[in-house]
Every structure is written in structure tokens, then in C-alpha cells.
């Protein structure tokens, strides 16, 4: 099954998105619009990713997954510092609750570089793992060290590093390379090949980003890399087709089995998809 492991949709009338700063993204992106892109790209299913630190949005996303069986998983949001057990129980009781496969928090928006070291957050993450859910982490460069510590110490939780840990400008540097090697050495960590075009900016090509991708491949292997289009955010520096064709070029020299892992198999296993 070919799976896009990272995309978004939003309805601005129902769930305003205050994080949006770009006119291009300041409109509703409906699930039907994404589905058309997905089908043209040859994908069979997708994982829908939260946008807001708002449990109500996750409820809406689960309902979308219930109505659209090709959305095989939802990565939602809960307050990790509150009663995580109760929050997960609420979400699982909703329409589509069986599609909840992970929790995500935009750690990059937290001012604290060591937010993942906070005792309340650590307890919450441990409970996420106890419920069999993964955790998607999107971090800034200054948060890499705390992400390494948390992933190492909460070994019962599957961690999925969004956007390959956000290498600055889409270029490898010593700090990023070291963090990727360290995280790649932890068996409970996987990484998403997603969102890289926006890091590099307009005019990026598959060749210009090949260095960061191949470094991540060496660290994680194909069994722990997941492709994600990051649609519609990818429109800021390209489009869905460019995101897919670039990724296919990055891995076109790998055996077919390895390519199948990156484009679906890894997502199925790491998210425990239906």
C-alpha cells in the first residue's frame, strides 16, 4: 500500500488557523482537493496531521477519516501536561476514533529549548506510549538535544521526527548531522522525508536536497523513513507533484523493497495502520 504519511487539510470557517502568515495558504483546503492530488500521485492512503493545539480539531479530523476510508490514520493533538489517559479515551470514543494512530505537538513553537525535558511532558509522553500511540515531533535546531534525551529515556514510545528534524535551509550542518546519527541509533525513532522544500525555499531541486536525505537514509535505513508530501504547506515552494517526484528521485537507486518501505511500509508499521 502506497501511503502519504504527512498531509493536512483545514476548513477556515470551522477551525481558523492563526499560524498561517502566507496568503497562498489562507483559504480552506478540503479533503476532496487533497484526494485528487493523492490519486494522481499514485497513493492508496494517507495519514492526516493536526494543525492546531486544539483537541476539537482532532475530533473533526477523526470524523473525516471515518467518512473517507483512504485516510488510514490521524495524528492528533492532546494536552500532554494534562490527563492524557482521559484525553485518549475521549478521542477513541469519537466517530473515527479507531483511526487515531499518534499524537503530535509543534515543539518548535515552544520558546523553551528543553520543553521535552519537562517532567509533566515526560509523563504525558510515557502515557501516549502506554496506549500504543506514536509521537510526532517537529523541532527547532536548538531543541535537538532535548529530543535526543527524551527519545532515549522514553524508550517505550515510538518517536517520528517530522521533516528530518528541520535542517536549517535544507542543508546539512555538523549539529544536524550529529543529531540524526544519534537519533538513528535509537531503535524507537523514525523520521519523515517531508517538508524539505520549504526549508530550502523557492527554486529547490531534488539534487539540492539530496545530501540531507541520503544522510538520513544512512542513519535510519529505509525501514525507518516515511515519505510525506506536507500538502498543502508544500505549495509555498512547489507542489504535490514536485514533492513526490523529488522523493522518488532520492531513492530511485534502492531496491524495490526498500522503496516500498519508504513509500508505505514504514508508515504502516510505525503507525500501526488499519
CATH topology name, in short, is TIM Barrel
Rg (C-alpha, Å): 17 Å
Mean pLDDT: 96
Shape: globular
Following the backbone from N to C, one meets helices and strands in this order, namely: EHEHEHEHEHEHEHHEHH
With strands numbered from the N-terminus, the spatial order across the biggest sheet is: 1-2-3-4-5-6-7-8
CATH class: Alpha Beta
Largest sheet: 8 strands, parallel
Helix content: 40-55%
CATH architecture: Alpha-Beta Barrel
CATH superfamily (homologous) name: Metal-dependent hydrolases
Class by SSE composition: alpha/beta
Strand-residue proportion: 5-15%
Q: Count up the helices.
A: 10
Total beta-strand segments: 8
Distance between the termini: 11 Å
The count of domains is: 1
Low-confidence stretches are: none
How are the secondary structure elements laid out?
Elements lengths: L2 E5 L23 H10 L4 E5 L5 H13 L3 E6 L7 H9 L7 E6 L13 H12 L3 E4 L6 H10 L5 E3 L12 H11 L4 E5 L2 H5 L5 H15 L4 E3 L12 H11 L5 H16 L3
Parallel strand pairs: 1-2, 2-3, 3-4, 4-5, 5-6, 6-7, 7-8
Helix pairs in contact: 5-6, 6-8, 8-9
Amino acid at each position: 500500500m502506497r501511503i502519504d504519511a504527512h498531509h493536512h487539510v483545514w476548513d477556515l470557517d470551522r477551525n481558523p488557523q492563526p499560524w498561517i502568515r502566507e496568503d497562498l495558504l489562507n483559504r480552506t483546503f478540503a479533503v476532496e482537493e487533497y484526494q485528487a492530488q493523492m490519486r494522481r500521485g499514485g497513493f492508496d492512503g494517507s495519514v492526516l496531521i493536526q494543525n492546531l493545539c486544539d483537541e476539537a480539531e482532532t475530533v473533526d479530523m477523526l470524523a473525516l477519516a471515518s467518512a473517507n476510508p483512504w485516510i488510514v490514520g490521524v495524528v492528533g493533538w492532546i494536552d500532554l501536561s494534562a490527563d492524557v489517559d482521559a484525553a485518549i479515551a475521549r478521542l477513541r470514543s469519537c466517530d473515527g476514533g479507531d483511526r487515531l494512530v499518534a499524537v503530535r505537538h509543534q515543539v518548535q513553537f515552544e520558546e523553551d529549548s528543553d520543553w521535552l525535558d519537562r517532567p509533566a511532558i515526560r509523563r504525558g509522553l510515557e502515557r501516549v506510549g502506554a496506549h500504543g500511540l506514536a509521537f510526532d515531533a517537529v523541532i527547532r535546531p536548538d531543541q535537538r538535544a532535548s529530543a535526543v534525551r527524551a527519545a532515549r529515556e522514553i524508550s517505550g514510545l515510538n518517536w517520528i521526527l517530522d521533516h528530518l528534524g528541520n535542517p536549517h535551509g535544507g542543508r546539512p550542518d555538523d549539529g544536524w548531522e550529529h543529531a540524526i546519527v544519534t537519533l538513528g541509533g535509537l531503535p524507537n525513532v523514525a523520521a519523515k522525508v517531508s517538508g524539505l522544500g520549504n526549508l530550502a525555499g523557492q527554486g529547490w531541486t531534488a539534487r539540492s536536497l539530496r545530501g540531507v536525505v541520503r544522510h538520513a537514509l544512512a542513519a535510519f535505513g529505509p525501514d525507518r523513513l516515511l515519505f510525506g508530501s506536507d500538502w498543502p504547506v508544500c505549495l509555498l515552494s512547489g507542489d504535490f507533484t514536485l514533492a513526490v517526484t523529488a522523493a522518488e528521485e532520492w531513492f530511485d537507486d534502492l531496491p524495490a523493497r526498500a522503496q516500498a518501505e519508504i513509500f508505505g511500509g514504514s508508515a504502516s508499521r510505525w503507525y500501526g495502520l488499519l
